[in-house]
């Protein structure tokens, strides 16, 4: 990589964090000119953009990244590259991380597209890519990433609930009244109220509607 | 009548005529001086000199008019025979000629100096010359039969006549009807100089006719050969051109992909600039940077197109010094995209000094491209996909070795590679390597394909090196 094109020096800056909050995009392509072009566009659009000229380079730095959430992220990768192609990266990423992947290619081969989608790519873009198309695809990928993160957070919170609290919360979300729950579970109404209060506290919700949304999002299996 | 005839005068006349005719023919055939022509005309001079010496018998020392004259006659006969045999492409070996010459010389000198029998010596010389004359007549006949030159029948005619006269002279001399002297005045002695004159005139003219016919035929054949060569060259040029186009077709997918890269960059930078400017508070440095990138990528796309266009230049070849490293790099650029797609690593030679060959850059790059494409096809199914290109040069030639890590050649393939229409590929025509070999040979080089150690195939392209002296 040329010096002018080194990855951003403002990584630890507030500016970088602000960009990350909007979206962190990793571009991988063996063509330097392509990397520079996409980076120019994404920098302008306010994203935190990192570029790698090979999938191996990216996989190398990946373990050293802090695992804390800094914002939604996605990977934009060329499908045909020396050493490791986009599909192989997809397999490797699935093992290590759960970042949405966008694959791009210079040719519109139907076979490639099918392979890409089957491998789990979120979208398949054909070069040259229109800026609007690219940004839309990236935004969609970032949204997927955000939702995914949200689900993960909520799942973590749900895991802090005791079995009883979870049971009560599930029944509340299903629309049962406190009295019915007390009867069915054969516990005192006071106890039901206590469990319900604790569950809502742990899940950081203030209304029943929010509780319903979380339970739905995490798709807690009914026993 | 016999009383009025002077054999000396007629021999003198023959001698002068022989000299004039020989020199005349030699001059006429000056644009086609082969050894055969030299021998024939030389023989004329020898025999004329011999006749002159015979004529002067009595006035010059005997050694000249007997021994030397007969040796000169022998040389002239042998020269004529050898001349005709050269034209027939069945020359007598020099050793054999020398043996005949020495044998004749020894026998003649023995009869002349030791035996001192005039009749024996005369008959011996006559028998030998009759044999040689018949041999000349026979060669003339063969020239007509084998090569179809009718004029050679003149030679056959006059030398048959001379053979007959020799035989008659032998007969009359042996029976004592006439004296054993070439300058005798008997009836058959008169026939001898007349036959000599006839042989000098018609023999030489016949030979001239054959030589002229032959020269015409050679010109005609040469013209036909040249026409065929030009046609062949034109056709092989066209085939090579088609092969180049085919090679490019095979590369077109990867070249299209390669062209797509700068175009993608151009589009994105252009749209980025538009977005920057739309916002109103554009960072002008960033705008300039985008515009610079657009210019750079346009140049890159243009280079790719120029590379393709350079490769499909029309048929006409032109010889010029070709920088071998530049040639390798250009072809490597051409296949780089395909190599990337197929995940093949190309290892190019390091340029330590400028190395040149003489030839047509386009055609030579076609050869290298063919080898590289073969190598890339060979490693498709290998886990290790490397192609090593090495350049070895010495003072007289350069050797380009291209080795792959494929499975190499099976014995069956090994025997047939380079033959037209032999191919191991489902889509191949089987002409590529044959064309590459033809082009290489036209450049005075060699292209071979062998198995390499420890694995893979090794193509070796050898070309004469062109030394360019810097001024």
Question: Could you please describe the fold and organization of this structure?
Answer:
The complex is a heterodimer of chains A (223) and B (471). Chain A is α/β, with parallel strands linked by helices. Chain A has two domains: 3-149, Rossmann fold (3-Layer(aba) Sandwich), CATH 3.40.50.2300; 160-218, Arc Repressor Mutant, subunit A, CATH 1.10.10. Chain A is 55% helix and 11% strand. Chain A is built from ten helices and five strands, in the order H-E-H-E-H-E-H-E-H-E-H-H-H-H-H. Chain A has helices spanning 14-22, 32-44, 55-61, 86-96, 110-118, 131-159, 163-173, 178-185, 189-202, 208-218; strands spanning 24-28, 48-52, 73-78, 101-105, 123-126. In chain A, helix 7 packs across helix 10 (208-218). Chain A is elongated, with a radius of gyration of 22 Å. Chain A starts with 13 loop residues before the first helix and ends in a 5-residue tail after the last helix. Chain B has helices at 7-28, 35-55, 62-88, 94-115, 118-147, 152-175, 187-278, 284-311, 324-341, 361-378, 411-416, 432-442; strands spanning 320-323, 345-347, 356-359, 386-393, 397-404, 446-451, 457-466. In chain B, helix 5 (118-147) packs antiparallel against helix 6 (152-175). In chain B, a hairpin with a 5-residue loop joins strand 6 and strand 7 (457-466). Chain B has 471 residues and is α+β, with helices and mostly antiparallel strands. Chain B contains twelve helices and seven strands. Chain B folds into two domains: 7-230, Rhopdopsin 7-helix transmembrane proteins (Up-down Bundle); 317-471, 2-Layer Sandwich (Heat Shock Protein 90).
């Amino acid at each position: 990589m040329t010096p002018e094109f080194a990855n951003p020096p403002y990584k630890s800056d507030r500016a970088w964090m602000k960009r990350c909050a909007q979206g962190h995009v990793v571009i991988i392509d063996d063509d330097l000119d392509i990397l520079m072009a996409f980076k120019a566009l994404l920098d302008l659009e306010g994203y935190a953009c990192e570029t790698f000229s090979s999938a191996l380079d990216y996989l190398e730095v990946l373990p050293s990244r802090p695992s804390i959430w800094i914002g939604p992220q996605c990977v934009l990768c060329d499908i045909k590259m020396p050493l490791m192609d986009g599909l192989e990266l997809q397999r490797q990423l699935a093992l290590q991380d759960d970042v949405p992947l966008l694959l791009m290619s210079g040719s519109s081969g139907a076979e490639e597209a099918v392979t890409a989608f089957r491998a789990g790519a979120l979208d398949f873009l054909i070069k040259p890519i229109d800026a609007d198309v690219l940004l839309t695809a990236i935004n969609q990928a970032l949204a997927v990433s955000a939702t995914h993160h949200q689900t993960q957070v909520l799942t973590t919170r749900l895991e802090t609930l005791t079995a009883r609290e979870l049971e009560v919360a599930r029944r509340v979300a299903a629309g049962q009244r406190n009295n019915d729950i007390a009867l069915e579970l054969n516990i005192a109404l006071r106890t039901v109220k206590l469990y319900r209060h604790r569950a809502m506290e742990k899940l950081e919700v203030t209304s029943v509607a929010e509780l319903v949304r979380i339970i739905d999002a995490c798709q807690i299996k009914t026993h | 009548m016999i009383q009025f005839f002077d054999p000396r005068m007629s021999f003198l006349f023959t001698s002068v005529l022989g000299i004039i005719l020989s020199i005349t023919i030699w001059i006429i055939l000056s644009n086609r001086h082969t050894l055969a022509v030299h021998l024939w005309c030389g023989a004329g001079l020898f025999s004329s000199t011999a006749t002159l010496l015979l004529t002067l018998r009595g006035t010059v020392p005997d050694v000249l008019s007997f021994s030397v004259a007969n040796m000169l006659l022998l040389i002239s006969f042998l020269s004529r025979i050898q001349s005709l045999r050269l034209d027939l492409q069945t020359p007598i070996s020099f050793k054999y000629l020398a043996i005949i010459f020495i044998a004749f010389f020894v026998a003649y000198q023995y009869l002349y100096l030791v035996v001192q029998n005039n009749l024996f010596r005369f008959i011996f010389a006559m028998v030998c010359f009759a044999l040689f004359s018949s041999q000349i007549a026979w060669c003339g006949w063969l020239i007509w039969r084998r090569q179809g030159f009718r004029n050679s029948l003149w030679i056959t005619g006059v030398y048959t006549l001379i053979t007959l006269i020799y035989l008659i002279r032998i007969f009359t001399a042996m029976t004592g009807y006439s004296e054993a002297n070439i300058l005798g005045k008997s009836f058959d002695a008169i026939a001898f100089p007349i036959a000599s004159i006839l042989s000098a005139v018609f023999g030489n003219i016949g030979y001239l006719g054959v030589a002229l016919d032959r020269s015409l035929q050679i010109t005609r054949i040469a013209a036909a050969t040249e026409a065929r060569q030009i046609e062949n060259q034109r056709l092989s040029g066209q085939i090579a051109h088609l092969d180049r186009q085919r090679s490019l077709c095979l590369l077109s997918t990867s070249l299209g992909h390669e062209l797509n890269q700068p175009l993608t960059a151009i589009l994105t930078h252009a749209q980025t600039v538009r977005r920057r400017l739309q916002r109103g508070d554009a960072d002008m440095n960033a705008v300039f940077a985008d515009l610079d990138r657009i210019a750079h990528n346009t140049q890159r796309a243009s280079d790719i197109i120029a590379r393709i266009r350079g490769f499909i230049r029309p048929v006409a070849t032109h010889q010029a010094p070709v920088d071998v490293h530049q040639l390798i790099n250009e072809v490597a650029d051409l296949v780089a995209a395909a190599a990337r797609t197929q995940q093949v690593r190309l290892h190019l030679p390091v340029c330590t000094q400028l190395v040149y060959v003489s030839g047509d850059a386009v055609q030579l790059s076609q050869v290298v491209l063919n080898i590289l494409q073969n190598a890339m096809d060979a490693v498709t199914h290998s886990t290790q996909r490397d192609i090593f290109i090495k350049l070895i040069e010495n003072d007289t030639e350069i050797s380009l070795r291209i080795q792959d890590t494929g499975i190499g050649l099976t014995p069956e393939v090994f025997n047939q590679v380079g033959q037209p229409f032999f191919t191991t590929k489902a889509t191949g025509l089987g002409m590529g390597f044959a064309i590459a070999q033809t082009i290489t040979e036209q450049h005075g080089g060699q292209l071979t394909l062998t198995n390499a150690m420890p694995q893979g195939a090794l193509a070796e392209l050898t070309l004469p090196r062109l030394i360019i002296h810097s001024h």
